[in-house]
């Protein structure tokens, strides 16, 4: 996600997830459904992580907890109403299709999203980050600090990010220990 950008990863993953989710109810057999669900499961973390990061990076730190909770409120309400919805439709294919169909409305929103200003700054794209910040200021009907102050802040963020690079492990044994540790955490 950090290499390609949050917006690009979110867009690609979400588009694939939506397409597969809308096709899954029309597949002929269980093996096809399981393959599609496996692929969807592969893209699900990218959708959640990239979207979550995109949202949280535009909030001030004091509002991030509330924003991180509010992001998942619609999903929670959807899950609570799913049983009643399934009871009304009485066919698992219709339920799957009816649940996936509204996601098509989300596709145009993917292209209207802007890249994370923080990611742009860390990657050294200060002009693009400034454009995104100016667009956000226009939407919010507020004004930004003068450009020279914003560029100084961007330089500080870039300097902090270069000082926090992960330590590379040299040698085969330290790398294997790191990989084993990561898989241990996974399980």
Automatic annotation (TrEMBL):
Residues 1-187 form the Major facilitator superfamily (MFS) profile domain. GO terms for molecular function: transmembrane transporter activity. It is a multi-pass membrane protein. InterPro entries: MFS_dom, MFS_sugar_transport-like, MFS_trans_sf. The chain crosses the membrane at residues 9-28, 34-56, 68-88, 94-113. Pfam families: Sugar_tr. Keywords: Membrane, Transmembrane, Transmembrane helix. GO terms for cellular component: membrane. It is found in: Membrane. This is Major facilitator superfamily (MFS) profile domain-containing protein. It comes from Petrolisthes cinctipes.
């Amino acid at each position: 996600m950090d290499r390609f950008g949050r917006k690009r990863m979110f867009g690609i993953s979400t588009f694939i997830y939506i397409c597969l989710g809308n096709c899954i109810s029309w597949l002929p057999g269980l093996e096809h459904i399981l393959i599609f669900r496996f692929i969807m499961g592969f893209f699900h973390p990218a959708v959640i992580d990239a979207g979550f990061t995109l949202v949280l990076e535009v909030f001030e730190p004091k509002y991030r907890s509330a924003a991180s909770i509010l992001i998942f409120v619609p999903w929670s309400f959807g899950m609570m109403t799913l049983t009643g919805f399934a009871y009304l439709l009485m066919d698992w294919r219709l339920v799957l299709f009816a649940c996936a169909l509204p996601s098509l409305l989300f596709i145009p929103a993917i292209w209207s999203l802007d890249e994370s200003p923080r990611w742009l700054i860390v990657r050294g794209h200060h002009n693009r980050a400034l454009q995104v910040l100016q667009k956000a200021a226009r939407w919010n009907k507020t004004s930004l600090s003068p450009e020279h102050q914003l560029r100084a802040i961007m330089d500080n963020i870039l300097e902090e990010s270069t000082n926090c690079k992960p330590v590379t492990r040299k040698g085969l044994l330290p790398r294997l220990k790191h990989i084993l540790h990561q898989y241990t955490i996974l399980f």
